[in-house]
Amino acid sequence: MRLWKEFTVQEQRAAEYSDFYKSVHGFRPRVDLSQLTVADLDARMAALAQTYRSQESYRLQQEAEAQAKIEADIAAMISAGADSRETALRWILQSLSVDQDADAGDLVSYQLGLPQGYFSSVVQ
């Protein structure tokens, strides 16, 4: 096994691109990166960075919309008798038939498009 410093610049760029590609798309690129020049890899990296920014912008927009919806649901539950925000969140978890533990809270957060830990104030 070679050390990182023993790789050529092209090999380092190819490895970085492959890792970043996997981070963005969920799988490694299906192209022979060893045939690409450093300039080709840099150009692909720049295009991939733009894709990442677009995806991140969309994710944040969707997350904000999901938060606005659940906050409206929380306000409605408080109006209907929940004595606190935590009680309203607990009712939401109960309505989804979810155990109130940290993993379940994170799963529901993910399923509803909310940030991880959204239910942390009401789960063990």
Structural notes for this entry:
This protein has 124 residues and is an all-alpha fold. It has a domain at 8-61. Helix content is 65%, strand content 0%. Helix 1 (9-25) packs parallel to helix 2 (38-79) and helix 2 crosses helix 3. The longest helix is centred in the middle third of the chain and has 42 residues, at 38-79. It starts with 8 loop residues before the first helix and ends in a 13-residue tail after the last helix. The model has no long low-confidence stretch (mean pLDDT 90).
Could you state the oligomeric state of the chains shown?
single chain
Number of helices: 4
Strand count, sense and closure of the main sheet?
none
Mean pLDDT: 90
Please give the number of β-strands. Answer: 0
Task: Give the helix/strand layout.
Elements: H1 9-25, H2 38-79, H3 85-95, H4 102-111
Helix pairs in contact: 1-2, 2-3
